Backbone:
């Protein structure tokens, strides 16, 4: 079972120029193969006038890492496979890399293409932020308004991320907590704040932990 993995914090775009050809690398966070395919269509629509939109992605589905790549008309093995190799070497998942090429009129040869697509992909990774995601839970905390500040202080001091708040008859605080800390925190919470607190576990999910800025 996959309990943690590394990925990118945000989408990014970088560009290199090789013998007058422009290589635009878009690095996109995705959570499914369908989402990756949808994003590829968006990129192709955005760069409709480009010669090639090559891609590679690694996505966690059904507790496995699914990998796909495409040369999109470039000579076989010169674009998608090298891009996928870069993603694998950096050990990142739930990531889509699309490198768009605007041909500059000078042929690069197979070695030149491999180098250019690899460098563009690597540049987009190096300019991003790598984070680690591990299994955790999204929880809901229902509290009287009088206890809201105490709860927020408790969450902050225990490094628990608040996702959202709803102000109804009570305040509903949505937060995420690591699987490792879940039992300790949810037992400690009522004892330290209010014994009548209502804590509801919504769903299991991957939550973020910083690795490299």
Residues:
């Amino acid at each position: 079972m996959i309990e943690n993995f590394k990925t990118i914090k945000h989408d990014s775009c970088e560009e290199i120029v090789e013998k007058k050809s422009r290589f635009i690398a878009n690095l996109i966070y995705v959570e499914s193969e369908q989402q990756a395919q949808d994003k590829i269509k968006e990129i192709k629509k955005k760069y409709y006038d480009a010669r090639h939109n090559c891609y590679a992605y690694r996505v966690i589905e059904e507790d496995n890492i699914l990998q796909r790549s495409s040369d999109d008309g470039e000579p076989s093995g010169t674009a998608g496979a090298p891009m996928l190799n870069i993603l694998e070497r950096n050990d990142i998942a739930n990531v889509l890399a699309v490198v768009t090429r605007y041909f500059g009129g000078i042929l690069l040869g197979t070695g030149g293409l491999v180098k250019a697509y690899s460098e563009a992909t690597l540049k987009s990774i190096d300019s991003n932020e790598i984070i680690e995601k591990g299994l955790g839970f999204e929880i809901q905390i229902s509290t009287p308004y009088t206890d809201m500040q105490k709860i927020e202080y408790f969450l902050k001091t225990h490094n628990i991320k608040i996702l959202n708040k709803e102000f109804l008859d009570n305040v509903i605080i949505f937060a995420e907590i690591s699987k490792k800390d879940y039992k300790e925190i949810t037992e400690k919470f009522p004892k330290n704040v209010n014994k009548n607190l209502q804590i509801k576990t919504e769903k299991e999910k991957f939550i973020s932990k910083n690795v490299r800025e």
